[in-house]
Amino acid sequence: MTFTTSKARQAFTDIDPREFVTLNDPPLLIDVRSQLEYQTGHVPGAVNLSLPRLLLGSIPMLRSLVWPEWFRDIEKDRTVAVICLSAHRSPIAADYLAKQGFDRVWNLIGGMLEWKRLGLETRSGKQP
């Protein structure tokens, strides 16, 4: 008996942080870490929506409670990118967003650890 496996097609695109910072018109960047992690250091311009809150929004009765208005209003044809600490949570978020109908979803390779290792700019504090 022979078993074959096939790798499922990834529903999102991985992007290197060095490539991301060179974009003339970067997409909305969603930081899926906790609020505390976000406040201690994040990519300038990134908005925070933790992975648990993102996933809880799949329950219709919770959506208005856990998803901020800016997220509920995003057009599905808009490019969005996601980042976390070490690129373990962000692929989950990217896959979820793609399955929710977002056309173009990017995942930042290596997360904030790689971003900081490369010496790229960060900000601290609460989301505006």
UniProtKB/TrEMBL annotation:
A GO molecular function held by the record: thiosulfate-cyanide sulfurtransferase activity
PROSITE patterns: RHODANESE_1, RHODANESE_3
SUPFAM superfamilies to which the protein is assigned, alphabetical: Rhodanese/Cell cycle control phosphatase (SSF52821)
Every Rhodanese domain range: 23-124
Pfam families, sorted: Rhodanese
Protein name: Rhodanese-like domain-containing protein
Organism: Oxynema aestuarii AP17
Organism placement in taxonomy: Bacteria, Bacillati, Cyanobacteriota, Cyanophyceae, Oscillatoriophycideae
